[in-house]
């Protein structure tokens, strides 16, 4: 069991370190419009996952799970909605990084677990413990502080938290393996992505026409940086207890936050400190409720 946990921890840490480091990758493409990056991410993720299906000999499993999903209109619609939701999440994240709002993005992924438990209460009729209710209240206080001080909703943080929590909720309704999920979601969006890139090329603005070699290679690599951490996470989830996996998930937004402040020089003033402190306090209550339940 110790060896199993050690292997699972290695995969889990790798996944969250890669996710937390993604701003570095997208920052290298900040001269490319976010929507064009997103289109490339869908296309090359689909290509890379198809390659993996053949290498890992999982294509038969993919076809079987796909048949099961589309055997009913309800599960097929749910998968389509999951694709739309993750599109909004990916697009917002890429835009926030390339627009110099990495700190806001990190806040969104700190809030995400608390939004997820709120969604569980509202949509799945799950009963929340007192500590979990306090955790959600702390996150709301943090958001209210940002609204009062800045005069507007931290919409990047809220959008990332809500879309990813909604994505998780939809995925609870259709249980499929990671490769099947990501391929179907990217295939849903690939026609629109290809149409958009064709439109750009017809206007003379496609990065494959005007970009340098590094830009083209980074766009091609968008599929790899999308799929690899997801595969690591899936493997870690199979090996690790959920309480350990839930604890190390905070590594990703923490690394993103540190990159935003210390590498890219984004502002982190007293308003941010007060808001983040409330959210961190909420996460402390949430984590303690998970540990106590375990």
Q: Low-confidence parts, pLDDT < 50 over ≥5 residues?
A: none
Radius of gyration in whole Å, from Cα?
19 Å
Q: Structural class of the helix and strand makeup?
A: mainly alpha
The major β-sheet equals: none
- Mean pLDDT score, rounded? 90
H-E order: HHHHHHHHHHHHHH
Shape: globular
What percent strand? under 5%
Number of helix segments? Answer: 14
Task: Kindly state the number of beta strands.
Answer: 0
End-to-end Cα distance, whole Å, is 17 Å
Indicate the percent of residues in helices.
over 70%
Quick rundown:
By secondary structure, the chain is mainly alpha-helical. It has 14 helices and no strands.
Question: What does this protein structure show overall?
Answer:
This protein has 294 residues and is mostly helical. 84% of the residues lie in helices and 0% in strands. It is built from 14 helices and no strands. It has helices at residues 2-27, 34-55, 59-69, 73-98, 102-123, 130-150, 155-173, 178-202, 207-210, 213-220, 222-239, 242-248, 251-263, 270-293. Helix 1 (2-27) packs parallel to helix 13, helix 5 packs across helix 7 and helix 6 (130-150) runs antiparallel to helix 14. The protein is globular, with a radius of gyration of 19 Å. The model has no long low-confidence stretch (mean pLDDT 90).
Index terms:
14 helices, single chain, 294 residues, mainly alpha
Question: What is the fold's blueprint, element by element?
Answer:
Elements lengths: L1 H26 L6 H22 L3 H11 L3 H26 L3 H22 L6 H21 L4 H19 L4 H25 L4 H4 L2 H8 L1 H18 L2 H7 L2 H13 L6 H24 L1
Helix pairs in contact: 1-11, 1-13, 2-4, 2-8, 2-11, 4-7, 4-8, 5-6, 5-7, 5-13, 5-14, 6-14
């Amino acid at each position: 069991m110790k060896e199993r946990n050690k292997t699972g921890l290695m995969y889990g840490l790798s996944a969250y370190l890669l996710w937390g480091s993604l701003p570095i990758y997208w920052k290298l493409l900040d001269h490319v419009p976010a929507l064009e990056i997103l289109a490339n991410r869908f296309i090359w993720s689909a290509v890379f996952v198809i390659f993996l299906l053949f290498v890992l000999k999982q294509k038969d499993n993919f076809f079987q799970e796909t048949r099961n999903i589309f055997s009913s209109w309800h599960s097929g619609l749910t998968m389509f909605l999951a694709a739309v939701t993750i599109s909004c999440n990916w697009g917002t994240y890429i835009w926030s990084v390339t627009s110099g709002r990495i700190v806001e993005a990190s806040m969104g992924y700190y809030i995400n677990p608390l939004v997820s438990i709120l969604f569980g209460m509202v949509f799945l009729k799950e009963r929340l413990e007192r500590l979990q209710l306090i955790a959600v209240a702390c996150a709301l206080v943090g958001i209210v502080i940002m609204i009062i001080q800045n005069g507007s909703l931290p919409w990047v943080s809220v959008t990332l938290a809500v879309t990813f929590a909604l994505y998780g909720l939809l995925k609870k309704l259709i249980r499929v393996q990671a490769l099947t999920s990501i391929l179907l979601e990217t295939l849903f969006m690939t026609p629109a992505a290809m149409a958009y890139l064709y439109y750009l090329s017809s206007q003379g603005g496609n990065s494959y026409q005007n970009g340098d070699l590094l830009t083209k290679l980074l766009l091609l690599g968008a599929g790899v940086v999308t799929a690899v951490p997801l595969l690591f996470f899936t493997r870690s989830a199979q090996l690790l207890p959920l309480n350990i996996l839930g604890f190390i998930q905070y590594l990703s937004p923490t690394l993103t936050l540190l990159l935003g402040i210390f590498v890219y020089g984004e502002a982190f003033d007293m308003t941010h400190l007060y808001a983040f402190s409330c959210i961190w306090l909420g996460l402390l209550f949430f984590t303690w409720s998970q540990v106590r339940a375990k």
